[in-house]
Amino acid sequence: MSQAITVLGGGITGLTTAWYLAQRLPQTVGVRLVEGSSRLGGWVRTDRRQAGGVSFIAEKGPRTLRTGNSREALAVLELVDDLDMRSDVIVAPRSSAAARNRFIYYEGELNRMPTGLGSVLTGLPPAVRCLPRGVWHDLTTKKNTPDGAFDESIHSFVSRRFGEQVDDNLASAVMHGIYAADTKDLSTRALLYPFWLADQMGKSGVLRGLRRVAKHSRARNARFAVRDAEEKYSVSKRRMQTPEFWASIDDASMYSFRDGMQMLTDKLATRLAALSNVEIITGQPATSARLDADGNVELLLENGQAVSSQHLINTLPLHQIRGLFGNEPSTSLLEDTPYASVAVVNVTYPIRNITPVDGFGYLVPRASANDSKALGVVFDSCSLPEQDGGADISRLTVMLGGSRFHELFGEPGAVAKEVLEQAAMETVSGHLGIRATPIDVDATVGRKCIPSYTVGYIDRLKSMHEWVQRQLGGRMSVVGAAYGGPAVPQCVVHSRDLVNRHLRLDALDTPQCVSGLEEIISSFE
């Protein structure tokens, strides 16, 4: 084919990017998906295991997807609809224990997080009692924004406005669950932008300042009115075409797929492989990227193969992108972004309802770090019991490591599975009092699996935007977990935006000069 676009990286971002391209491009334009490893799907991985005469799944990466009316949530649901996966979806209703009960491990006990005014009135558990004091502290403390501050760690921000205990007990736990990182390193401006802006704009406290932010946001979002109207209309049409599916989603707090999250990436790969203008290359890492004599992008693979196209969409992690450009000048986001490593230990028991409480699971805050090596534990069977297929089992997942991985276990690539599995069993026994013998314990290490949005991230993102536009004569864009959020829905919506809103697919002979970061950066203005 005379024209083509190359997508580098076959994780969830690369697969969805290739999918959206294939939907928009004519059959005469090629889509080349290049993945360095032997499998597609990236960190989305579901293993099928056998033990004790039972077959069950073990999620090694993301395990559920949130519902709601956000662009991100709806983008994934529309993708599921387009892939005809509606019958594969299983949900956790809003009335379920998994939706209502989420815990924090504090002072040796599981503390249930409040879900509304009713739970507040019936009494707050010890971990959460700092929150009312934190609110009062913000309302009664004069504006104390540091002069000239362009950003601030979440720990510093929350401690300054709400009290250090709110961070130690609550904020640190939430960020452990999302980023596997320490709030002392993470950026308030990037991850808590409305609150950061409220502190900047408000005259007396963050909570009062949120009213000013709401007005500012309405004015800022007006520029997206046409986009939002088009997307709302698209969803409304789908609701009329498949009303039962959308009604089930409306009643759900979260969802996944009958045989796990990998069903989504497997279906994308299968559908892409069936298209005549799509070529999928696996097992061949890219070693360099350059412009050829005709001004097109030439991607060189480990086996010496050269993949040529008019544009490259790069979905690789930041530390892998840097290696493609040799000794050329780099940019700070590539050089200075740490990645967290997380050990996922799946534990399966031959007993139903083995946990002392029903719920989604629990997170471990900084305040309990001395009592735990875990970031948190998910009660998989309680969250989505249909995935157990009626078997009398209980599946749990223990997450270990994160920002403390080296301190607790050493080098992620060298730690023995037995060490991680023993730490997981100590966590389950010590935190939950479970003494039963599991039928299966399996540890997997995700090395550098989650990018950390550290202090100064937004400014580094802007520099990255400029750097990308200079590379390969304006014929490269980037999209992925390092830009605008690492969760599956964020990766999906950003890949869709890049393909459907920013790239000029009818003018591939002309350099696009589209970084892929334009809309993400504008959301912080």
Structure description:
With about 525 residues, the protein is of the alpha/beta class. Strands 8-7-16-17-18-15-19 form a seven-stranded mixed sheet. Strands 10-2-1-14-20 form a five-stranded parallel sheet, with helices on one face. The protein is globular, with a radius of gyration of 23 Å. The mean pLDDT is about 95.
Strand and helix map with partners:
Layout: E1 3-8, H1 12-24, E2 29-35, E3 46-51, E4 54-59, E5 65-66, H2 71-82, E6 89-93, H3 97-100, E7 102-106, E8 109-112, H4 117-121, H5 130-140, H6 154-162, H7 164-179, H8 188-191, H9 193-201, H10 206-221, H11 225-241, H12 243-250, E9 252-257, H13 262-273, E10 278-282, E11 286-291, E12 297-301, E13 306-309, E14 311-314, H14 318-321, H15 332-336, E15 339-349, E16 361-363, E17 374-379, H16 380-383, E18 394-402, H17 405-409, H18 417-432, E19 440-451, H19 457-470, E20 476-478, H20 488-502, H21 518-522
Parallel strand pairs: 1-2, 1-14, 2-10, 7-16, 14-20
Antiparallel strand pairs: 3-4, 5-9, 6-9, 7-8, 11-12, 12-13, 15-18, 15-19, 16-17, 17-18
Query: What general outline do the C-alpha atoms trace?
Result: globular
Average residue-wise pLDDT: 95
Total number of strands: 20
* Continuous helix count: 21
Q: How do the strands line up in the largest sheet?
A: 8-7-16-17-18-15-19
Q: N-to-C terminal Cα separation, in Å? A: 41 Å
**Largest beta-sheet details:** 7 strands, mixed
Question: What percent of the residues sit in helical stretches (DSSP H or I)?
Answer: 25-40%
Kindly report the oligomeric state of this protein.
single chain
